[in-house]
Amino acid sequence: MTEHAYRIQGATGEWEVVIGLEVHAQVTSDAKLFSGAATTFGAEPNTQVSLVDAAMPGMLPVPNRECIRQAVRTGMAIDAQINKWSRFDRKNYFYADLPQGYQISQLYHPLVGEGAIEISLDDKNPDAAGKTIGVERIHVEQDAGKLMHDQHPTRSYVDLNRSGVALMEIVSRPDMRSPAEAGAYLSKLRSILRYVGSCDGNMDQGSMRADVNVSVRKPGDEYGTRTETKNVNSVRFVMAVVEQEAKRQVEVIEAGGKIVQETRLYDPDRNETRSMRSKEDAHDYRYFPDPDLLPLELDDAFLDECRASLPELPDSKRARYEAAGITRYNAAVLTADVDTARWFDALLDAGASAVPAANWVTSELFGALNRLGKDIAASPVSPAQAAELLALVADGTLSGSLAKQVFEVMLETGDAPAKIVEDRGLKQTSDTGAIEAVIADVMAKNPNQLAQYRGGKEALFGFFVGQTMKAMGGKANPGVVNELLKKALG
């Protein structure tokens, strides 16, 4: 995938890192997995808790069809095996934020089986190879509540708003071999979930988090003992965990120690992982089929409806853009996030030509949004207005520099480009008579440069172009200016 494989340099030679990710993604749904309680982020503690979520005696769970549908659509988006028959299991453990004393999950018969995600590490290089990362399974399960330790000097409070929220656990194969690959996989997975609409991907709100499994080995050896760093909530932090944890493991092994299979936590302030609990005595979760829930049996009509509802996904969209002549890099940038891709598609639908539109969006629009601190969904300029601006450039009404001026006014006022051109007199002129008169004047005012040019100093041609454009306030058509200057200078 890269010319030089990622290696940790230890005292005893090179070490290879082996990475697998378990990503918990909150399913986009108005209700929880087995109850009708709301799932809005940021609600007051314990205001979104039904009797089912609080595990009141006699309450029975009822699966939420929409949560199952979203998980199936996600599986289809990564070409995974969809299991028509799946089953819920109880994972038994006792913790203050788990009112039932068990979590309903799917250990033995998950909803979604094996799939794959394609990643790329070098979008600027048209010949760069990609890599396929295997996905072992996707199962649906309930989230637990949340303990709050900072609300009281001697007590911990519990907020059950998240209790029973639907999660997809997306388990990769241990196919990644560098921090960059882990980052690319998580970014691509997030992008796919956002395209499908099955998870909003807001990692800062906890709706997507990763457990990072890391082990090291001498290249080609058997897998080493792995550690699992829990609940990492950004792509950057996942990459940092891989790097720091791999270095730590190499140091431990080379100092004669052994890696303990354990759960760790990442501290971003100190950029280090810390031991949380050992897994040497693996918990006996006493999994068994949930007696309150029948197996899930999916019929063909349901699966057909799920498949038909899928949008064009990032890889297909990117191939379509590249086929239209857009560079590999621009196509990757435009398809990385669903909001950008939708905005760009709306721009094309409004009549813009693919290549100039791609160049304009990735340079002018992104630059402006960056300055304004806005994302594309909040762009002050609509796709229809942008298409109008690009059309004025294409038909020669505006030069590149005039288009930049008009765009700045559009950002400030929200006015349409044609109105701005009219109101401010910014139209580019291709009137040959007017341009010829200015050229004659420029030549008359610069006899020395004219003599030097005619004496063989051809680099001065640019000087005459600049002087002519300046005299016409940037409104002359550069192509016409070049043509007429060549004639006039002889």
From TrEMBL:
Pfam families: GatB_N (PF02934), GatB_Yqey (PF02637). The keyword ATP-binding applies. Residues 342-489 form the Asn/Gln amidotransferase domain. The keyword Secreted does not apply. It is an enzyme of class 6 (ligase). SUPFAM superfamilies: GatB/YqeY motif (SSF89095), Glutamine synthetase/guanido kinase (SSF55931). SMART domains: GatB_Yqey. It catalyses: L-glutamyl-tRNA(Gln) + L-glutamine + ATP + H2O = L-glutaminyl-tRNA(Gln) + L-glutamate + ADP + phosphate + H(+); L-aspartyl-tRNA(Asn) + L-glutamine + ATP + H2O = L-asparaginyl-tRNA(Asn) + L-glutamate + ADP + phosphate + 2 H(+). Its EC number is 6.3.5.-. PANTHER family: GLUTAMYL-TRNA GLN AMIDOTRANSFERASE SUBUNIT B MITOCHONDRIAL AND PROKARYOTIC PET112-RELATED, GLUTAMYL-TRNA(GLN) AMIDOTRANSFERASE SUBUNIT B, MITOCHONDRIAL. HAMAP family: GatB (MF_00121). Belongs to the GatB/GatE family. GatB subfamily. Heterotrimer of A, B and C subunits. This is Aspartyl/glutamyl-tRNA(Asn/Gln) amidotransferase subunit B. It comes from Sphingomonas mollis.
